[in-house]
Structure formats: structure tokens, C-alpha cells
Give the backbone structure.
Amino acid sequence: MKTKAAVLWGLHQKWEVEEVELDGPKAAEVLVKLTASGLCHSDDHLVTGDMPMRMPVVGGHEGAGVVVEVGEGVTEVAEGDPVVLSFIPACGRCTPCARGMSNLCVLGAAIVAGPQLDGTFRFHARGQELSQMCVLGTFSEYTVVPMASVVKVDPGTALDTAALVGCGVTTGYGSAVRTGETRDGDTVVVMGVGGIGINAVQGARIAGARNIIALDPVEYKRTRSLEFGATHTAADVEEALALVTEVTRGELADVCVVSTDSGEGAYVAQALSLVGKRGRVVMTAIPHPTDTTVDMSLFDLTLYEKQVRGSLFGSSNPRHDIVRMLELHRSGQLKLEELITREYCLEDINQGYEDMHNGVNLRGLIRF
């Protein structure tokens, strides 16, 4: 079939929206008609090369839609079912999945490889095979994805907002609650309150944090963070340190989530300076792939038992936690509609990313 998609043909280029060919689903795959796709920073990392991937590629990894066709052997969903797509496929059978760590499923190795799980391609254009971001490619009206990436949701679910729980909401929430283990009464600092960090703020609030400091140089994001649960805001680390010292009487924060636009080695030392004894620094921001050095005080790390933890998808289990996020939304605890700052048609995708870089969006959304 033919479908309209946003394709990245090379590094540092613009997304090009054009008609492409899409093959039907093979065994254990599903054809989905997208309702909406979030504009996540991770797709911009394809443009900059911070996330190396085979080009050309159909971008997008945060989406929701309706099943149109199922491949051989698929019994979990049927035509017409509403689904959210998880950017991490989860087989449910490998050792990490069996241990409750399905965000680390062995199938996750495929998310930046390019082709589908069987090593072949579904999208084609200009005589070339097109990769799919995270084996999804949600910057397209239609896409074919593995059943391992599909989470069925309740009929009547608003799929435009549900799209956001496929990545940003669940990653941010989980960074604070699952990886960071935020507890009732804790003090939490969120360093960078964009599409991921704003949900770390929400997660800390829902977990019962007493103080939540939103740290971001962009005034708009600091102001908006107060709507999602931040109790204090700071424009830089120095200001945040003074705040944390004051509100904790010198004990410092229990958790610091680093959800900046990219993960820099220098941010680790800054985050460690904000947490106290047994404080947990959660690194969620995607680092530069060639960076191998990190600034930190090993003296502090040892004597105060401070911890640095990596976080992929917020240490969440997609099939359980995507549904849980929607339940929290229905109960009024988790904000979703409020996250969407601007909506775009697919042809305006480059404007959407320009707005993200200019700091005027919490989350931009493509509506199909």
C-alpha cells in the first residue's frame, strides 16, 4: 500500500514528507493506522547523529492508533482494536522479561538497527529500503510493527493523548518513581523539564514527594512545571542547590532525575552535588554515543553512598505500565491533555522540531 511518511535521508537534514510504499504485516506483525504521534527529542537525535541509525529512516516512536490488519499467528489483537505502541518491544519470554525488566528485553537491540525484527524492511521509497525508528516509524499515516511492540487499550481511549504514554510520559514517570524510587516525603530535583522531565515532575508528585524542584533555563518550562506538581523552580544548578539546601535543612535531595536535551558527562557531577546521603541520580537523557568520561567525586560517591543509575523507558514494563499510566489519567492523577502544547500536521514536522528547540513546547503532537 502507499502511505505518507516523514523520512530522514541523511544526517543534519530536514525531515521530508513524501509518499512511500508499505508492505503488509508478516508473521507476528500488525498494520496500524496512526491517530497521533508525539514529537520526541530522541528522533531529533537521529538528525544530529547522537543516536546512530541506518539511513534513510522513517522517524517516530511515540504513537497510538487502530489495528487495520494482523499477520500470521497474531491472536492478542484484532482488526479495529485501539493500541498504544511501545518504543521498546517486549517478548515476555527472555530472561529480562521473565525477571520483570521487559524494558531491557533482548528484542530492544533492534530499535536502532533499522529493519524489522526478522531483518527485512517494510517501508520503501526512491528505490531504497527505509529503516523504522524503534521498529515503529510513527511519523507515517500507516505503519507495520511487531506484536511485541503493541499494547491493547480500552475501547474509547482518546488515542491522541494516549500516544504520549508510548514514550515520554512513561519514561519520565518511571525515571522518578521506578528507577529513582521516589518515596513519600522525598525531595526530588528534575534537571530539564521538557517532554520527559515534566513527567518526572508528575511522577514525583504522585509518589508523594514533599519538595519537587524543576530545574531548567527556560522560563516557560519552569512556569508550566508548577501546573504539574513542582513546588519550586530554579534556572541553574547554583540556584537549585541553594533551594534544596534551604528546604531540606542541609540534607539535600533524595533523587535527581537528569532529563536534559542530551546527557553530558558534566551533568553527573552537578546532579550528585544536589543529592544527599544515599541520594540517587537517575540518568535518563540520551548521551553522545562516543562520550566515555563523566565528572564526579568518587570521594562523595563512596563516603555518602550516593548512586548513579541509568534509566531506559523509566525502568518500566511496557505492557503493564502503559496501561497503568492511562488508569492514572482516568483517575485524575496524571495530566495528559495539558502536556500537548501545539498540534501539527505531518507536513509541519520540521516546524514542530524548531519549536521544540526554541523551548516553546512541552510536547508537540502530530495528528493524522
Observations:
- Residues 318-330 form the longest helix (13 residues).
- The two ends are 17 Å apart (CA to CA).
